[in-house]
Structures are given as C-alpha cells and as structure tokens.
Specification:
This protein is mostly helical. It folds into 2 domains: about 5-80; about 100-165, Arc Repressor Mutant, subunit A (Orthogonal Bundle), CATH 1.10.10. It has 9 helices and no strands. The longest helix is centred in the middle third of the chain and has 26 residues, at about 90-115. The chain is elongated and about 55 Å long. About 15% of the residues are buried.
Length: about 180
C-alpha cells in the first residue's frame, strides 16, 4: 500500500469488514462502515500501515466499529451518544435517590482513601487507568513499562480495595 487512500480503499472493499459491519450495525451497517472510514482517515498513516503489515488491520477496524456502535466515538452520526442525560425526577422518589447518593459518596470517599494507602507505584498506575481513563498501552508508553506489569499492579490494587470494602459489608461494582 503506497498511500492512505489505497489502504482505506482496501478496507472499504474488504469482505470481512463488510460482514462485521452488517452483523454489528444491523440495518445501519452502511452508516457504521462510513463512520469507520472517517475514523481511519483521522488516523496516522504510519499506524495504519503498521497494522496492515503486521496483520492486525482487521482487528483495528473491528475495535473501532465496536467503539462506534457503543457510542464512544464523537462525530459518528447516529451512533454517538451524549453522556449527559437530563432526567426529571418525581418528588416522591427524590429523597430515596438523595439518600443513596450520600451512601455512594461515602463509599467513593472510602475508595479514594484506600487507593491513597496503596504503594506509590501501584497507586499511580491505578489512578491513571481508573480515574484518568488512560488505556494500558498509553500508560505503558508514558512510563515505558511492560503492559503485563501494569495490568498486574492495577489488578492487585483492585482486589485489595474490593476485599477491604466488602469486609465492611458494602458492595462495589467495577466498570
């Protein structure tokens, strides 16, 4: 592939990608495919070329399609979902919700305290992943640390915090 246009045309005509878009996008598969192409045009050509040369271009496209379908990619037409939802609350349920929010706030504060009590290395990686929302690969590139090491440290903190919170008869749900 000599140019970005050649590579994207290859993807546009790739049978497996069309079938994946049809299975995921159902009756809006053409919109999904178009949004995929738009996202590929935004990507760096060298990254696309590396994915093509190392035989993970289809996986990259499948991942992008999945994120588009879940509404996690801005500027993707029908699929993108706004994160802020304005709900009207009936007056009779208002106090129940406020009480639960207070419990959740206390639990979240306990969670933050438990995170801060962890070893500095594990705590830093955990915060990058769960609080700042960085991906494992981004953390790896930031600190030049093996992804498996990062994953292990994050899981270790997660298990310790979950155990301590459950010991206090609370439940905690991870994203």
């Amino acid at each position: 592939m000599n140019t970005k246009n050649d590579l994207i045309l290859y993807i546009w005509n790739k049978k497996e990608i069309i079938l994946y878009c049809k299975s995921v996008g159902k009756n809006k598969w053409e919109e999904l495919r178009s949004d995929l192409i738009m996202q590929l045009y935004k990507m760096d050509f060298n990254k696309l070329l590396m994915a093509y040369n190392n035989n993970y271009l289809e996986y990259t496209c499948f991942t992008i399609c999945s994120r588009i379908k879940k509404g996690k990619v801005p500027d993707t037409g029908l699929f993108y979902q706004q994160r802020s939802v304005n709900l009207e609350i009936d007056e009779e349920y208002k106090y129940d919700i406020e009480d639960k929010n207070q419990d959740i706030t206390e639990l979240y504060n306990k969670f933050l305290t438990l995170v801060d009590e962890q070893h500095w290395y594990n705590k830093t990686l955990f915060k990058h992943y769960y609080i700042e929302g960085l991906k494992l690969r981004e953390i790896s590139e930031l600190y030049n640390i093996n992804i498996k090491s990062i994953h292990y440290a994050i899981e270790k903190v997660k298990c310790e915090i979950k155990k301590q919170i459950e010991d206090d008869n609370n439940t905690f749900f991870w994203d």
